[in-house]
Specification:
The chain folds into two domains: 44 residues, no CATH class; 316 residues, NAD(P)-binding Rossmann-like Domain (Rossmann fold), CATH 3.40.50.720. Helices cover 38% and strands 17% of the residues. The strands form five sheets. Strands 6-5-4-7-8-9-14 form a seven-stranded parallel β-sheet, with helices on both faces. Strands 1-2-3 form a three-stranded antiparallel β-sheet. Strands 10-13 form a two-stranded parallel ribbon. A hairpin with a 2-residue loop joins β1 and β2. α6 runs parallel beside α7 and α10 crosses α12. The chain is globular.
Length: 377
């Protein structure tokens, strides 16, 4: 039977809900075990058009899928009908973040460290694996660099073998302590290559280099997003990020700690908006590679954020000031003109609304005795 004939038959079987044949891929040929021989090569199969006779749903790999961003991405992909393979070594990701997805028929969880090669069959790859908060990535800086660099190499190698689109979750940290404000994608940055944050900053910069070299040398279809400060439910309560730290301190009635004088600025994007940006970028044509800034251009001082959190939690916490850590950027705000133009994307959730949707998550979390012990309460 020709590929076109098989495609027609497969459509008919699908329509009647009688797709019983198990179809698998082996070395570029399609097999139905009951026949025991290849029906067509992958090249011939491509000529059939947009009919996928092997899989009914798109198969998507999400590395770091049990983390803050990864778990939200897995959710949105499942809502769009994808089969999701969530890969995580649980260094910073937690089973709690994806527990509600475990019984979903299109969700699969695999414990794996991306610094080692991974052999799976997927159509798209989102590479999010890497600790992203200073407390976590500075705990083992060598491993942080390895995760960024070796993780990128392994996902690029997998992408090349499968001819799968691959997305890299890069970061606004590639801009360092910027001398240009707001930051556009063309800006090369102002990064200390030997500082305490360099394991993360330079690891991500090297990962971007690898992505674009694989694109130029091997023709890979790549998508690179530079992520600015993001917050929302499932942020780790003890990771040192400013929004989660302020909310936890306020809910516990502790002093809110501001490093520096509070005039340094950040732009805060709600996680739901950011993940929609990921998917929009992944769905662009081959000509769109990035890097593309994804973040909220609304800019607030750290002092303003502290005041908002105190007000929305009804806390009596006081603000205290501590010295600014080494290499901490004084200002950070994305220019999202490219995302608006290429993706028709911009964030919709304002800071106050996002905080109102985030605070109840932490309030519930802090009611658990195990969490209290874990964060030293």
């Amino acid at each position: 039977m020709s590929c076109a004939g098989l495609a027609r038959q497969t459509r008919q079987i699908r329509g009647g809900g009688l797709l019983h044949s198990w179809i698998s891929a082996n070395r570029g040929a399609i097999y139905i075990p009951s026949y025991g021989k290849p029906l067509c090569s992958s090249a011939e199969n491509a000529a059939v058009g947009d009919v996928d006779i092997m899989h009914l749903e798109q198969r998507v790999l999400v590395t770091g899928g049990a983390g803050f961003l990864g778990s939200h991405l897995c959710e949105q992909l499942l809502e769009r009908g994808c089969q999701v393979l969530c890969v995580d070594n649980f260094y910073t990701g937690t089973r709690r973040n994806i527990e509600h997805l475990l019984d979903h028929k299109h969700f699969e969880l695999l414990r794996h460290d991306v610094t080692y090669p991974l052999h799976v069959e997927v159509d798209e790859i989102y590479n999010l694996a890497c600790p992203a908060s200073p407390i976590h990535y500075q705990k083992d800086p060598v491993q942080t660099t390895k995760t960024s660099v070796l993780g990128a190499l392994n996902m690029l190698g997998l992408s090349r073998r499968l001819s799968a689109k691959v997305f890299q979750a890069s970061t606004s940290e590639v801009y360092g302590d910027p001398a240009v404000h707001p930051q556009q994608e063309e800006y090369w940055g102002n990064v200390n290559p030997i500082g305490v944050r360099s394991c993360y900053d330079e690891g991500k910069r090297c990962a971007e280099t690898l992505f674009f070299d694989y694109h130029r040398q091997h023709g890979l279809e790549i998508k690179v997003a530079r992520i600015f400060n993001t917050y929302g439910p499932r942020t780790h309560p003890n990771d040192g990020r400013v929004v989660s730290s302020f909310i936890v301190q306020a809910l516990l009635g502790k002093d809110i700690t501001i490093f520096g004088d509070g005039t340094q600025t950040r732009s805060f994007c709600f996680v739901e908006d950011l993940v929609q940006g990921f998917i929009k970028l992944m769905n662009t044509g081959r000509d769109v590679t990035g890097p593309v800034n994804l973040g909220n251009p609304g800019e607030f001082t750290i002092g303003e954020l502290a005041d908002k959190v105190i007000d929305l939690t009804g806390s009596r916490s006081k603000v205290v000031y501590r010295p600014l850590p080494a290499d901490d950027p004084k200002q950070r705000r994305p220019d999202i003109a490219k995302a608006q133009r290429l993706l028709e994307w911009e964030p919709k959730v304002e800071l106050e609304e996002g905080l109102k949707r985030t605070i109840p998550y932490f309030d519930s979390l802090l009611s658990e005795d195990g969490v209290k012990r874990a964060i030293g309460i």
